[in-house]
Design goal:
Helix content: 25-40%
CATH architecture of the largest domain: 3-Layer(aba) Sandwich
CATH superfamily of the largest domain: Periplasmic binding protein-like II
Strand content: 5-15%
Keywords: Signal
Number of strands: 9
Largest sheet: 9 strands, mixed
Mean pLDDT: 90
Low-confidence stretches: 3-41
Shape: globular
Radius of gyration: 20 Å
Protein name: ABC-type Fe3+ transport system, substrate-binding protein
CATH topology of the largest domain: D-Maltodextrin-Binding Protein, domain 2
Number of helices: 13
Order of helices and strands: HHEHEHEHEHEHHEHEEEHHHH
Structural class: alpha/beta
InterPro entries: TAT_signal
Organism: Streptomyces mirabilis
Length: 381
Amino acid sequence: MSSFLSRRRVLATGAGAALGVGALGASVTPAAASPAGSRGAAGAEETRTLDELYQAALAEGGKLVVYAGGDTPTQQDGTKAAFKARFPDIDLTLIVDYSKYHDVRVDNQFATDTLVPDVVQFQTLQDFDRWKQQGRLLRYKPAGFSKVYDAFKDPQGAWVATGALAFSFMHSTAAVGSGVRLTPRDLVDPQWKGKIASSYPHDDDAVLYLYTLYARKYGWEWVAELAAQDVQFARGSNSPGDAVFGGQLPIGIGTAGSAVPSTSSPVRFVIDDGVPFMSWGQRVAILKQAKNSTAAKLFLNWQLSTEMQNGSFNGWSVRTDITPPAGLKRIWEYPNGNLDGFPRFVADRAGVERWKQTFALYFGEVRGDPTPGWLGLHPGA
């Protein structure tokens, strides 16, 4: 369900301020070009600049519809504002919903010949492999494609990840102590009873995978003890961060954050050695039936530009030529980040269902309306 450019609350952890700088910086710098490439052919990188693509997109009609995975209707407002500032004459419609609803929505639109989006940007990694096999995705390599980490791109250009994300737990430094190094094992201590927020693991595959990592490392006894901690479960992976940053509860599990070292941040996002967390690349693709394929190409090139990649909220880039802030490693350099495990996990849908229903036995059924609202079959049409 994740959205990678506009996670609520995580900006306060220190890296997010760079987002606006990166977005505005793109207004004067063309997209990096591959000198040997043709103009976006399947086997070569795009060579047109952002401005050239912009003009071509306007000539095409100047419209673009993006379906993005996320937790709240406003979660991509920062992306929309930055894109609008750079490309003011493009009519961008960007619809946020849980990825697990967006993907079946797109499947239904395929089945009924009523396709709405040009670009899909989802956490449901398994869909991109399936759609590629079905011939649904446009094979296209944006400028900078060769610099993207290999695990974050399809070799033929059917999809590319434009954001690197991680889910872990976080805690208030004021409530827990700035020098305290909590681990998930510590969360079952009685002192934290009634003081933990979490997104439901059986409502979001990324949170689910994080909880499976915890169960495998700490055991089912730990899961049972956590279930007795009166955890405040809620829908939306933004909810634990909102609770911690808002001062309602000191600990949040199953949410995104920034681990950029900061002495001023009120919250610590935990990715310490030996502590399992989960990470992935949020995949983006242009649908072969897209009505606005040139504007879609513009969007991908903009997302992968060095300006945007340097402005990621968490300090991580999908590109190998972007150096993370001091104190961070590249996301694929964390063995405890389980980067390669998540695609395998979500591809095993039967296994996912077993994990979901098992956690429902411990934590109860998912309750509450979806946080983006009920969007129906054709949002953005």
